[in-house]
Structure formats: structure tokens, C-alpha cells
Design goal:
This protein has 313 residues and is an alpha/beta fold. 23% of the residues lie in helices and 20% in strands. It has eight helices and eleven strands. The chain has helices at residues 17-30, 104-108, 124-132, 138-146, 154-165, 171-184, 261-265, 293-297; strands spanning 4-12, 34-40, 49-57, 72-75, 94-99, 117-122, 189-190, 247-251, 271-274, 279-283, 305-309. The strands form three sheets. The protein has a seven-stranded mixed beta sheet. Strand 9 (271-274) and strand 10 form a beta hairpin. Helix 5 (154-165) runs antiparallel to helix 6 (171-184). The longest helix has 14 residues, at 17-30. It starts with a strand and ends with a strand. The relative contact order is 0.13.
């Protein structure tokens, strides 16, 4: 382990990356390390791309900026590979740990070319569903990390989690997280030939009307001029918020009664319909964030809308 280990987390809002960063920092602090843990996100809703960071050091840490050249990058949602260059700035001999069912060799072809690093994968989502009953890949991914680097052990993570979260979560949730951490620490897939530059071309640069979110400059604000037309009122339709999705609604036309409960409750006006027939025609996947509200409000006896993983066919 170098004198200071820098880690960058990539996830979607609601997947627990910020909590995972804190859990890792707490365990490292209790193990005698100097630590930092902090997020980077704005007012994004659940599903929007977010980042979190850790610094873990044997000596006091004297820098407080975001992590731009990490030793380790952890990705909790593989769909981010299509919208974010997750390996940007990753050191040549760094580590990319990805939550996915795929192998490192399969993932390598999806990474933006020009980077050199070691790729490790773990099915943290599958492990979390097994032990927690839902999609929450954050703590299993920490367990996987402990098998890759020697800065902290799975036992240290479990002891810290038990100390800090007993009483915060139910006994069943705490025990489920401990089991998930232990299993993930033994389930990491390593492939030697996955080390090397990525296999796909650069991601397209965001242009007005195409990007999924807008980064602010360091000053923290943008003046509304003709150059920044995206600041105009009512511009939500111009953004590809669909890239935020982790789950996708699937509509069954044969079951649908066209009651339009989904249309009434959809926060993004992503329910499409025919004005002449006054019937639903599907979802606007460009703007649907996959919140699942449409599936929840669909009448129980109808169930014309179901949610599936975004990676499903």
C-alpha cells in the first residue's frame, strides 16, 4: 500500500456509494489510519451519476481537493460505462473494481481506450439480493476491495460496521451486510489478461440537447447568455435523463386499460400517448429515469408495467 491511497467511487444516486465511502473511512480510522471521505453531487435525483472519494493514509492528510488521479476506481453500476469515463485519471498500475456479472475481459472492451490498469469484477448486486433481499451493492463491494488490497481486511470492515450500525439498522439488516461483505471478499473475479488499455473509443462529448447532466465551472455558477442556452426555462426535454436509469419500465399493451394513472404520477412526463385514440403508446426512454412510480401506481389487477434491470434485453 502506498503512503496514501486515493479512491474514487462512481455510482448512481441511491446505490449507497456515499455510505460505502463512510463505512470504509470509519473502518480505516479504527484501524489507525488517517482518512477522508466526501461526496461530489448536486441536486440530482435518485439514479443520477454521482461520485464519492476516499483518502487513506499512514500519515496526516494535508490535501482537500477531489481525487483526480486515483489509485483505485470503484464502479457500483456498469451502465455508467456508457455515459462516464470512469477510468479518467486512473493511474497506469491502478485498480478498477466493477460491480457486474461479467468477467474482467468482457468489461475491458467497454472501457474507454487509452488507460492502463488492472480490472477486477464482483457480482455485488447478486450478493446483496441474496443477503439483503434488494439491490444494494455498496457493502459487498467494500468486501471485494479487501481481497484486492492489503490496507484493510474484511474482518476490520465487519467489526466496524457492527459497532457503528447496530441500533441504526435492524439486527437482520446488520447480519445481512456482514454476510454480504464476507462473501464478496471471496468472490472477486481476476483475469491477468484484463490488464491493459481499454477497448472502445472515447465517449461522445456532451452537447446541448445530448448530455445527461451539466458540470458547473469551478466558480460554481454560469451566466445565462446565448452561449449557455441550456439555462432557459423549461429545458428539461433537452436532456437525456434516461441515462440515469438502473431499472427500466416495460409496458404490456395487451394488459393496459389506459387508465392513465401512470401519466398522472410520472414526475418526468415520460408516458407517451396518442392524442387521437387517447391511448397510451409507451414510455419516452430518453427522459424516463426509471423511478418505478408508473409500475407502483398501475392497478394491482392490471400490472401492465413491470420494472427490469436496464441491462436486460
Amino acid at each position: 500500500m502506498p503512503e496514501m491511497m486515493e479512491i474514487r467511487w462512481h455510482a448512481r444516486g441511491g446505490q449507497g456509494a456515499v455510505t460505502a465511502s463512510k463505512v470504509l473511512a470509519d473502518a480505516s480510522l479504527e484501524a489507525g489510519k488517517h482518512v477522508q471521505s466526501f461526496p461530489e453531487y448536486g441536486s440530482e435525483r435518485m439514479g443520477a451519476p454521482i461520485k464519492a472519494f476516499n483518502r487513506i493514509s499512514e500519515e496526516p492528510i494535508t490535501i482537500y481537493s477531489t481525487v483526480t488521479n486515483p489509485d483505485i476506481v470503484i464502479v457500483l453500476d456498469e451502465t455508467l460505462l456508457e455515459v462516464v469515463d470512469v477510468a479518467e485519471g486512473l493511474k497506469d498500475d491502478g485498480i478498477l473494481l466493477l460491480n457486474t456479472e461479467h468477467t474482467p475481459s468482457e468489461i475491458r472492451d467497454k472501457i474507454v481506450e487509452g488507460h492502463k490498469y488492472r480490472i477486477f469484477t464482483v457480482d455485488a448486486t447478486g450478493i446483496s439480493r441474496k443477503h439483503l433481499g434488494r439491490r444494494m451493492p455498496n457493502t459487498p463491494t467494500i468486501g471485494a476491495l479487501t481481497s484486492i488490497v492489503d490496507m484493510i481486511s474484511a474482518g476490520d470492515i465487519c467489526d466496524s460496521f457492527k459497532t457503528n450500525y447496530t441500533g441504526v439498522f435492524t439486527k437482520e439488516v446488520v447480519e445481512g451486510n456482514l454476510k454480504a461483505i464476507e462473501e464478496a471478499s471471496k468472490a472477486v473475479t481476476k483475469t491477468e489478461n484484463a490488464k491493459g488499455s481499454g477497448g472502445c473509443g472515447p465517449l461522445p462529448k456532451g452537447k446541448y440537447g445530448g448530455e445527461s447532466y451539466k458540470e458547473l465551472p469551478w466558480a460554481g455558477y454560469i451566466v445565462a447568455t446565448e452561449k449557455h442556452a441550456y439555462l432557459r426555462a423549461g429545458n428539461a426535454e433537452d436532456y437525456n435523463a434516461g441515462s440515469w436509469r438502473a431499472n427500466r419500465p416495460v409496458w404490456d399493451e395487451e394488459k393496459c386499460t389506459h387508465c392513465f394513472r401512470c401519466f398522472i404520477f410520472c414526475p418526468d412526463a415520460a408516458i407517451m400517448f396518442d392524442l387521437e385514440t387517447e391511448k397510451m403508446t409507451g414510455h419516452d426512454y430518453m427522459h424516463c429515469k426509471g423511478c418505478g412510480i408508473c409500475a407502483e401506481v398501475c392497478p394491482p389487477k392490471v400490472r401492465a408495467i413491470t420494472m427490469v434491470k436496464e441491462t436486460s434485453k
